[in-house]
Design goal:
The complex is a heterodimer of chains A (539) and B (306).
Chain A (H helix, E strand, L loop, with lengths): L1 H6 L2 H37 L3 H12 L1 H7 L10 H34 L2 H6 L7 H28 L6 H28 L3 H25 L24 H23 L23 H28 L2 H4 L2 H4 L2 H6 L1 H43 L2 H7 L4 H34 L6 H28 L6 H14 L8 H4 L17 H24 L5
Helix pairs in contact in A: 2-5, 2-7, 3-5, 4-9, 5-7, 5-8, 5-9, 7-8, 8-9, 8-10, 9-11, 11-15, 11-17, 15-17, 15-18, 15-19, 17-18, 18-19, 18-21
Chain B lengths: L5 E10 L2 E11 L4 E5 L6 H8 L7 E6 L2 E2 L4 H5 L2 E4 L11 H10 L7 H10 L12 H13 L5 E5 L7 H16 L3 E5 L3 H7 L2 E6 L2 E7 H7 L1 E8 L12 E6 L5 E7 L3 H10 L2 E7 L3 H10 L11
Parallel strand pairs in B: 3-8, 3-9, 6-7, 7-8
Antiparallel strand pairs in B: 1-2, 1-4, 4-5, 9-10, 11-13, 11-14, 12-13
The chains are: A mainly alpha (539), B alpha/beta (306).
Chain lengths: 539, 306
């Protein structure tokens, strides 16, 4: 029977996938469900008075906040629950998307690259079974998370929350995650290896995120055109509109169906974007571990640099809307006078830059940490063994990866600031000077270096625990992106070096902090290099 | 004799509780091809990785060119070439690029010899490594190794993915190295290959070297198989010392037996007194030798060779 031929032993493969992924799945579900529930439970305390709620509403209505959290659509009377929905949904959706892309790549192209899929397919297993096992795994995971979110919100009992809204948030996030899971499965059929799949998937997500930001600021109705924007359209705790979920479901379904069609047609190991022929001999430039790493990672670096440049440019393009108090209040110009008004406008934009710096920093940390951990994954894949059989020292290889990662963090961060500066320059009548961005740059670089150095330390001493580097970056993102809105205590922000950085450009750089962060970087790097030289490499 | 080029004594390596190498002891001399054989999981690759400074030994010592393999790995690697059994290559680099990269990392360059080797092994150097088969990946590593001007070559099951034609090419090049006075460590499961090329052989099992020596020396330790037919009955044969596995064959007074090397003279003179009709003797092959060490877990030499 045809369907038997296509889907045979899907169940067995699902069990196999779960066996492989259960730790990852457990960590993701527990962390995310606990995070959302804990924040919801805390919200009552943060925004308990009507006065606190009204003041945050004014903030959330500003273009700066709209660009970060989505258009503010809640109607009066404002409740704690409505504030929660506005602040949390886009943020949680970002995390859901990241989780789904990671798992979807691992279960499709990851398996295929490792040659495992070939072994599996040689057995009495249907042609589409591996893909459908992936679909089932992602569907199950998102559903479970949706239920946990719903339950968590029910338990938290926020003022103004209703059951329909709680479940809508839960299943809305699940549906958005699922949509990107399916989209990644589709991308996995187009690209012909795991790293390309990851890059393409994040590129699609990045484009959608930036597109929704600009439509949210200019004309929120246009956000309907962007699948990622549907998450903002659920009218939670008000009309509780379930239609966006239908759209997400349909979009995901189309992606899954396309993925299945392409998967059924293509050869194992092949993609629709075929690998081109390479050079006959190496260029004179390719001569050691550093240039080898450059040769391998230059496209990744370029992609992240351009990505952060575009993100920064997108933020910069709304500086004129944000920094124009007169727009919302024509009287203010007469009250303050032109020069005082310009100064006030600049303060608002600088405030916004201080918040955005976190996003730009975290985006720059992602490729840097990835490169640092590539030192371990290249070792596990066996690429480095032959390298070490040549006259190349451990120190040389370690230093190549580490320096590349540190430079990557700095370059990608700088690209984001340049993007912001250039578009800010074109749209603003009274633009922010480059020296302001330079201050931001100087302020954050030492803290970023500490985080990359820590990833290097894990690669040197505890390669099995290398994923802790991601946990740290994610925590940094969470604690600073949401920290002040959910009134995270100061000490909780100081679990990452990013939390020690002054709110530049509103405040001045704290040079003593910068210096001791740099000192810590050097210390960690020394330890990391010792560890990497002493340990066994993977078998 | 000259000083050994490689010297391993009482080498030990532990992975957690598992003792991968218990007692590894052997030497390789200049101009020698050393065969390294043993069952899967016996510790061949682990030994080689310790030699390459990829793993750090827990005990004993290993030196190449008189230098410690861990401390002086870079100096040592300057003068060696290595081909692993499973070759993993950077997926988005072409074979040609990788060959050049390996050469450069030893301070050498793409030469005419490299081009000749690429042609001889029949490799398409423009393909990305992602698209190569196992055999082609091995060719990339082999071409890089043979075109390196090293003093010591380490091959860890290098021909497992090659077709017979390329295997032949490989053997020719190893013999060329030998004629140039280079040393080679060849770990292999293809015993005919080892038998053909190696001057001395080391057999490893369960993390210990159980035997080293030339093939002739090793043969001496085992039994010659004799198939004999005589005119007179061979009634006392079973009682002679050093006789094993006596089996009656088709025909009158026709038997086959295995004789220990040091009892061969005595057994042969007994047989001649019984008036020979036919006699064939077969020296033990490496395979026979090998099987003995594989099969008996405790002491290979006391076990019966049936």
């Amino acid at each position: 029977m045809m369907s038997g031929q296509l889907f045979k032993r899907t169940g067995l493969l699902i069990r196999l996938n779960l066996k492989r992924d259960w730790t990852k799945i457990l960590i993701w579900t527990v962390t995310l469900a606990a995070l959302l529930t804990a924040i919801a439970a805390k919200f009552d305390g943060i925004y308990s008075t009507q006065k606190a709620i009204d003041s945050i509403v004014t903030t959330l209505k500003t273009p700066a906040m709209v660009s970060l959290f989505g258009a503010f659509t809640a109607k009066a009377p404002y409740t704690t629950a409505k504030i929660f929905a506005t602040e949390m949904v886009v943020f949680m959706a970002i995390i859901m998307v990241i989780m789904n892309i990671m798992l979807a790549v691992a279960t499709t192209r990851g398996e295929e690259d490792d040659g495992l899929l070939e072994l599996v397919r040689a057995h009495a297993v249907g042609r589409l079974a591996p893909l459908s096992a992936g679909v089932a795994e992602l569907t199950g995971l998102n559903l479970i998370l949706g239920v946990l979110y719903g339950l968590g919100l029910q338990l938290s009992g926020m003022p103004g929350a209703d059951a329909a809204g709680n479940w809508l948030i839960g299943f809305g996030l699940a549906a958005m995650g699922w949509l990107f899971g399916m989209l990644t499965l589709l991308v996995a059929q187009l690209a012909d290896n795991a790293s390309e799949t990851t890059m393409l998937s994040y590129a699609i997500f990045g484009v959608m995120y930036i597109a929704r930001m600009s439509t949210d600021v200019s004309d929120p109705r246009q956000t309907w055109w962007i699948p990622f924007g549907w998450i903002e359209k659920m009218s939670i705790y008000q009309k509780n509109d379930w239609r966006p979920l239908l759209w997400m479901f349909l979009f995901g379904l189309i992606c899954a169906a396309l993925a299945a069609t392409l998967n059924w047609r293509r050869d194992l190991g092949a993609g629709f974007l075929a690998t081109r022929q390479g050079r006959r001999t190496a260029s004179p430039f390719l001569a050691g571990p550093a240039t080898l790493l450059w040769r391998e990672s230059r496209m990744v670096l370029l992609a992240w640099t351009v990505g952060n440049l575009v993100l920064g440019a997108a933020y910069g393009s709304i500086f004129n809307t944000i920094g124009d108090l007169a727009k919302s209040n024509p009287m203010i110009k007469q009250l303050l006078g032109a020069s005082a008004l310009a100064a006030a406008n600049r303060v608002i934009v600088k405030n916004f830059i201080a918040v955005l710096a976190i996003v730009i920093v975290v985006v720059a940390l992602i490729p840097a940490v990835q490169t640092m951990l590539k030192l371990v994954s290249d070792e596990n894949k066996g690429y480095l063994h032959q390298l070490y059989a040549t006259a190349t020292s451990r120190w040389h290889v370690w230093a190549s990866y580490t320096v590349f990662a540190l430079v990557e963090a700095v370059v990608v961060f700088m690209a984001g600031l340049v993007g912001m500066y250039v578009t800010g320059l074109t749209v603003m009548t009274d633009p922010i000077k480059w020296s302001t961005y330079w201050q931001v740059f100087l302020a954050y670089v030492p803290a970023m270096l500490v985080m990359v150095a820590a990833a290097s330390l894990l690669a040197g001493w505890l390669p099995k625990w290398r994923y802790l580097a991601w946990v740290w970056v994610l925590y940094g993102f969470f604690s600073l992106y949401l920290g002040s809105l959910i009134k995270l205590p100061v000490w909780a922000k100081k679990f990452t070096p990013l939390g020690f950085v002054n709110k530049v450009p509103i405040k001045a750089i704290d040079w003593s902090t910068s210096w001791w962060l740099l000192a810590i970087t050097v210390l960690i790097l020394v330890l990391a290099s010792i560890g990497y030289r002493r340990r066994d490499l993977a078998q | 004799m000259t000083a050994p080029l490689l010297k391993i004594s009482h080498l030990q390596k532990r992975f957690g509780k598992f003792q991968a190498l218990k007692d590894i002891d052997f030497e390789i001399y200049p101009g020698e091809v050393f065969g390294f054989i043993g069952p899967n999981g016996a510790g061949k690759s682990t030994t080689i990785r310790v030699l390459l400074g990829i793993l750090k030994a827990n005990g004993g010592s290993a030196t190449i060119f008189g230098e410690d393999v861990w401390e002086k790995s870079v100096d040592i690697h300057q003068r060696i070439a290595y081909v692993p059994g499973d070759v993993y290559l950077w997926p988005n680099l072409s074979g040609g690029e990788i060959i050049d990269l390996f050469l450069k990392m030893n301070g050498e360059h793409h030469s005419e010899k490299t081009d000749a080797l690429i042609k001889e092994f029949g490799l398409d150097p423009r393909k990305k490594a992602r698209t190569y088969s196992k055999g082609n990946r091995q060719k990339v590593a082999l071409i890089a190794a043979f075109s390196t001007n090293a003093d010591f070559y380490i091959f860890d099951e290098p021909t497992s993915g090659l077709d017979p034609l390329n295997e032949q090419t490989f053997q020719e090049h190893v013999l060329q190295l030998k004629s140039q006075g280079k040393s080679v460590l060849l770990s292999s499961h293809i015993l005919s290959e080892v038998e053909k090329m190696c001057d001395r052989i080391g057999i490893i099992r369960e993390g210990s070297i159980v035997e080293t020596g030339t093939l002739a020396e090793m043969r001496h330790l085992t039994r010659t198989t004799i198939d004999v037919q005589t005119v007179q009955p061979l009634s006392e044969l079973a009682t002679l010392p050093g006789v094993h596995g006596l089996t009656t064959k088709h025909g009158e007074n026709h038997v086959s037996l295995a004789v220990e090397a040091d009892q061969l003279t005595a057994v042969m003179s007994y047989l001649t007194t019984k008036q020979l009709v036919t006699l064939t003797s077969t020296p033990p092959t490496l395979e026979d030798l090998f099987m003995r060490y594989y099969e008996s877990p405790n002491d290979a030499r006391t076990a019966d060779g049936k």
